């Protein structure tokens, strides 16, 4: 019958059209290198179009690198580390050869074998020796293997608003050195009224747990300690932990110096600082250029001091790791790129000069990732091209050498997830039962630490 | 022959609904790091899941949300539709206004209300304070957190159901009202005995859809309170937390997803059976 | 229409009822405006504030120092027109694919009664219960490597269109509607020698205009607002949808909140315009879908 044939024809046509369209539309970009010819690698962390200067710098670097390495071609993507898409990208073979991670990420990735082992190639890159060994350890498995390279390293300090300090009658060159002073100063600043908070802290999406950890370190405490038998146990259910939570609770409900709005996460305190509504908060130095650029604050207004208590400072930062599906040629090419852009002692001075010319902040008191001769080069260039009021950061720089730098506990994200609601409870509930909160958290953290090998 | 027409549909459903469901079940029985081949671990993931105190908390919170959403998100659109149906003026304005929030991407609505819920300077507390009424801590207090989330969700979604009820109301035969009025029925009796029964079909459909949707609520708790808040963590937020935010464990997340699927399917089957006479 | 609702027109002529009516009308109008419109007004004007004033978060009717710079920046920096066009393209294509696939499938299930029809229909409905996030990784894995054909649909619109066509709600509503088309009409057409396809296009579809409108509205809105899936599938920043681009920019870089909100407002406008224009069709469609049977 004509109709039967016509229908069959129609379905066939439809199916074929669909297939053809799909085939032509499907993206054939994959991360596998061709067997001969130039090596193509994908990298991420290209600044988006809204950051014109940084993006241009990035593209210039790519051009310069490709000129120096004619056998390597770089295919850049935007974006840093997003846990939601990371797994999807890995599963789909879309993970870049060199992808950005924060210091909290490597441990989990290494344990789950989701990153490439670069130990065999380290010897090919002498520049790696100029990087601080304890930073390299962050990307290692503790047994001698390396899986990534650091690009930036930041230590916790106290970011404070010099203008508000002055208005409240405090000396802007003397940030509070103890937590008692923090409480007093916060009270005075909050007394300025007009929605201004003296001190701010986090309590949402792991940032609260992260800050609690930082605060334990400042008082000489720990969140987790390792015994002689190698086993880890929770170490915060003690007077130090109680003191931290009690002080936060009192500042919030007794002094009312922390404002009503809680359940804050990372960007919220920067926004308050940028709007001139926050006296101080614990942060790393890289917050300051972000506040200035994104929230239109003024660099002169911000000071940076050491963490109150000064008995330990939590270190953080970022770096790059490498897709496990890369070929050895790609890994080597990607390592070359990462080192070229972020860890090449020969390019430090030129980089700082370029930044200064582009009116990007130079001279911030971020600890560099270098050691030895490279570090000297870094410090000299930082000084020479400084265009920010470095005297505002003097308190931090002065105290820095005497404060031990401590890294995060194992399974940090899981631990933070347990401690986060403790912070939230203390900051939102007037009758929070601090001993109980700590005891419950201790039980959960011990269960987490029991799985650490 | 019928299958020729069905073919495309079967392909789409097969590839993107049924096959992933099966894969979800297999994932729940494995540990997969997405690089090397997955390892079969039997019921380990389920054991971990049931040992986690967060599971009970998430289930309780989800049920609380669904319950509150029934009171607010289900009843309000019906009442609103009945009211709007009566009003003879400004019809276009009402329909447009009520439906506007539905147009917003859910993330935008959630972020918008986040500003409003700020206990210090947000719009709501400022207005309450100005009217000398007690202010609320909204999402920051365990007592009002869930309710606050339900309000956002209701605001953002009620337009669709309201308009559907409104459309159904407009096909109610006027004679029914006439005759009942002549019989002397009061306003409420008319609503109860005529209006609501006429809406029965669509009310039942919407009830099923609403319960199913609210059991899977994610955006509002996630955006407003994050994935660590025991007052508001729901099953979907927990799945996200397992998969992406804290555990990076797809097997565990898949186990919880399978659990959720089983519960929802059982509920739907039961529901459809009970309401069979009324929806035929 | 004389007495079309609870209140008859005659009743409204009585002065007391009239007074109550107008009071209720006024109250409802104010309430609706306050609850539904003011938040959007707030959002639109927040984009006109300077960042400092915005952070102050005071309640003002008009910004103290309105400046449209945030809107300008949002338009240019955030490349809103580009992402808007992306989203339009995906929504339009998705709508066509959904209509094509789902209408044929519902028609088959309703009128052509294939052997396993009931089971297939139940299977399609069951997908409404599937938690979205649960399917995320398996569905993503499928999209990156289709079984049998071994195609990668990432960064291709088909990665959005094909999964969207697996829409249980559409099938349900369409089948219900088709079920209510009397068999006699179809039998008459068959007697006249029409093929099944012709029956579909010449007879069933024109009758189904209202329900097609409903499907279309929901499908387009759904695709416009969809977020998590397009974020995973369209990873090339250039190809992203508007929602995903907005979120990426807000999370990753130096976009001030005022600019962000201005961008959101711009993103919300097109849907509103479309709704205003097609409002009659939408309501007409909803009435057909909502009525019993």
Care to describe what's here?
The complex is a heterotrimer of chains A (about 450), B (about 280) and C (about 290). By secondary structure, chain A is of the alpha/beta class. Chain A has two domains: about 50-155 and about 315-385, D-Maltodextrin-Binding Protein, domain 2 (3-Layer(aba) Sandwich), CATH 3.40.190; about 160-315 and about 410-450, 3-Layer(aba) Sandwich (D-Maltodextrin-Binding Protein, domain 2), CATH 3.40.190.10. Chain A is about 45% helix and about 15% strand. Chain A has helices at about 1-25, 50-70, 85-90, 105-110, 120, 135-140, 160-165, 180-190, 205-220, 240-255, 265-275, 285-295, 330-340, 350-355, 375-385, 395-400, 410-430, 435-450; strands at about 40-45, 70-80, 100, 150-160, 195-200, 225, 230-235, 280-285, 300-305, 315-320, 405. In chain A, strands 3, 4, 5, 8, 9, 10 and 11 form a seven-stranded mixed beta sheet that branches. Chain A has a two-stranded parallel ribbon with strand order 1-2. In chain A, helix 2 links the parallel strand 1 (about 40-45) and strand 2 (about 70-80). Chain A starts with a helix and ends with a helix. The model of chain A is unreliable at about 1-35 (pLDDT under 50). Chain B has a domain at about 60-250: MetI-like (MetI-like fold, Orthogonal Bundle), CATH 1.10.3720. Helix content of chain B is about 75%, strand content about 0%. Chain B is built from 14 helices and two strands. Chain B has a two-stranded antiparallel ribbon with strand order 1-2. In chain B, a hairpin with a 7-residue loop joins strand 1 (about 30) and strand 2. The longest helix of chain B has about 35 residues, at about 55-85. Chain C has two domains: about 10-70, no CATH class; about 75-290, Orthogonal Bundle (MetI-like fold). In chain C, helix 10 runs antiparallel to helix 11. The longest helix of chain C is centred in the C-terminal third of the chain and has 34 residues, at about 255-290. The radius of gyration of chain C is 24 Å and the shape is flat. Chains in contact: A-B, A-C, B-C. Chains B and C meet through helix 1, helix 3, helix 4, helix 5 and helix 6 of B and helix 2, helix 5, helix 6, helix 7 and helix 8 of C.
């Amino acid at each position: 019958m004509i109709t039967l044939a016509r229908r069959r024809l129609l379905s066939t046509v439809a199916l074929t059209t669909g297939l053809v369209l799909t085939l032509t539309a499907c993206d054939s970009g994959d991360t596998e290198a061709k067997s001969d010819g130039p090596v193509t690698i994908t990298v991420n962390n290209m600044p988006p179009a809204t950051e014109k200067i940084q993006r241009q710098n990035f593209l210039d670097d790519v051009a310069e690198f490709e000129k120096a390495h004619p056998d390597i071609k770089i295919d850049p993507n935007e974006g840093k580390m997003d846990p939601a898409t990371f797994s999807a990208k890995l599963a789909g073979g879309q993970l870049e050869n060199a992808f950005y991670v924060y210091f909290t990420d490597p441990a989990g990735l290494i344990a789950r074998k989701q990153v490439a082992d670069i130990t065999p190639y380290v010897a090919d890159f002498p520049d790696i020796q100029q990087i601080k060994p304890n930073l390299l350890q962050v990307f290692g498995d503790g047994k001698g293997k390396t899986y990534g390279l650091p690009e930036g390293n930041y230590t916790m300090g106290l970011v404070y608003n010099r203008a508000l300090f002055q208005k409240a009658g405090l000396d802007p060159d003397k940030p509070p050195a103890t937590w008692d002073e923090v409480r007093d100063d916060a009270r005075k600043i909050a007394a300025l009224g007009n929605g201004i908070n003296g001190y701010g802290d986090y309590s949402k999406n792991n940032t609260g747990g992260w800050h609690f950890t930082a605060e334990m370190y400042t008082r000489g405490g720990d969140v987790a300690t390792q015994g002689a038998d190698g086993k880890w146990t929770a170490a915060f259910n003690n007077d130090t932990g109680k003191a931290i939570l009690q002080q936060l609770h009192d500042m919030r409900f007794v002094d009312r110096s922390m404002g009503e709005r809680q359940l804050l996460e990372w960007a919220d305190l920067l926004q308050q600082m940028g709007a001139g509504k926050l006296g101080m908060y614990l942060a790393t130095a890289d917050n300051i250029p972000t506040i200035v650029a994104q929230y239109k604050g003024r660099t002169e207004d911000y000071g940076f001091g050491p963490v109150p208590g000064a008995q330990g400072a939590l270190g953080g930062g970022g770096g790059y790791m490498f897709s496990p599906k890369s070929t050895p040629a790609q890994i080597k090419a990607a390592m070359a790129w990462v080192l070229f852009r972020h860890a090449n002692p020969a390019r430090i001075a030129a980089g700082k000069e370029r930044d200064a010319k582009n009116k990007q902040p130079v001279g911030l008191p971020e600890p560099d990732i270098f050691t030895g001769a490279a570090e000297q080069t870094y410090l000299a260039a930082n000084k020479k091209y400084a265009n920010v009021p470095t005297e505002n950061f003097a308190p931090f720089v002065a105290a820095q050498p005497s404060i031990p730098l401590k890294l995060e506990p194992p399974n940090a994200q899981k631990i933070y997830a347990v401690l986060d609601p403790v912070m939230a409870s203390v900051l939102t509930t007037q009758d929070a039962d601090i001993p109980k909160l700590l005891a419950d958290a201790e039980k959960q953290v011990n269960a987490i630490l029991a799985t650490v090998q | 022959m019928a299958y020729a027409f069905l073919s495309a549909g079967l392909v789409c459903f097969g590839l993107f609904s049924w096959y992933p469901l099966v894969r979800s079940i297999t994932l729940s029985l494995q540990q997969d790091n997405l690089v090397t081949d997955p390892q079969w671990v039997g019921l380990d993931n389920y054991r971990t899941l049931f040992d986690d105190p967060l599971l009970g908390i998430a289930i309780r919170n989800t049920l609380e949300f669904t319950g509150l959403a029934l009171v607010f998100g289900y009843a309000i659109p019906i009442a609103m539709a009945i009211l709007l149906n009566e009003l003879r003026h400004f019809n276009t304005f009402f329909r447009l206004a009520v439906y506007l929030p539905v147009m917003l991407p859910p993330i935008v609505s959630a972020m918008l209300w986040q500003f409003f819920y700020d206990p210090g300077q947000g719009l709501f507390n400022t207005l309450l304070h100005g009217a000398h009424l007690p202010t609320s801590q909204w999402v920051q207090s365990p007592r009002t957190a869930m309710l606050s989330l339900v309000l956002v969700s209701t605001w953002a979604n009620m337009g669709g159901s309201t308009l559907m009820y409104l459309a159904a109301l407009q096909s109610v035969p006027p004679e029914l009202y006439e005759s009942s009025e002549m019989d002397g029925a009061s306003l409420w009796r008319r609503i109860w005995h005529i209006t609501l029964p006429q809406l029965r079909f669509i009310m039942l459909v919407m009830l099923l859809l609403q319960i199913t949707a609210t059991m899977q609520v994610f955006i509002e708790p996630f955006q407003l309170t994050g994935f660590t808040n025991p007052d508001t963590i729901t099953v979907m937020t927990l799945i996200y937390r397992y998969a992406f935010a804290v555990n990076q464990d797809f097997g565990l997340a898949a186990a919880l997803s399978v659990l959720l699927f089983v519960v929802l399917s059982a509920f739907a089957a039961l529901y459809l059976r009970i309401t069979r006479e009324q929806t035929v | 229409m004389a007495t079309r609702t609870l209140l008859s027109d005659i009743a409204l002529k009585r002065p007391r009822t009239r007074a109550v009516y107008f009071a209720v009308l006024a109250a409802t109008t104010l309430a609706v405006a306050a609850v539904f419109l003011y938040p959007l007004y707030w959002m639109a004007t927040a984009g006109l504030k300077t960042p400092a004033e915005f952070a102050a978060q005071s309640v003002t009717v008009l910004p103290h120092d309105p400046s449209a710079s945030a809107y300008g920046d949002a338009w240019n920096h955030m490349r809103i027109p580009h992402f808007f066009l992306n989203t339009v393209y995906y929504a339009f294509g998705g709508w066509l694919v959904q209509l094509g696939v789902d209408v044929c499938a519902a028609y088959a299930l309703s009128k052509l009664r294939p052997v396993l029809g009931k089971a297939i229909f139940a299977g399609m409905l069951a997908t409404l219960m599937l938690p979205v996030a649960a399917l995320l990784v398996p569905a993503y894995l499928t999209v990156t490597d289709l079984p049998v054909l071994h195609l990668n649909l990432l960064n291709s619109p088909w990665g959005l269109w094909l999964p969207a066509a697996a829409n249980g709600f559409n099938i349900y509503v369409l089948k219900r509607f088709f079920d209510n088309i009397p068999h006699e009409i179809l039998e008459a057409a068959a007697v006249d020698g029409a093929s099944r396809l012709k029956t579909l296009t010449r007879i069933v579809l024109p009758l189904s205009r209202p329900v097609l409108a409903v499907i279309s509205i929901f499908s387009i809105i759904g695709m416009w607002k969809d977020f998590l899936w397009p974020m995973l599938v369209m990873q090339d920043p250039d190809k992203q949808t508007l929602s995903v681009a907005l979120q990426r920019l807000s999370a990753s870089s130096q976009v001030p909140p005022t600019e962000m909100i201005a961008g959101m407002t711009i993103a919300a406008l097109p849907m509103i315009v479309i709704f205003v224009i097609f409002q009659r069709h939408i309501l007409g469609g909803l009435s057909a879908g909502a009525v019993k049977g």
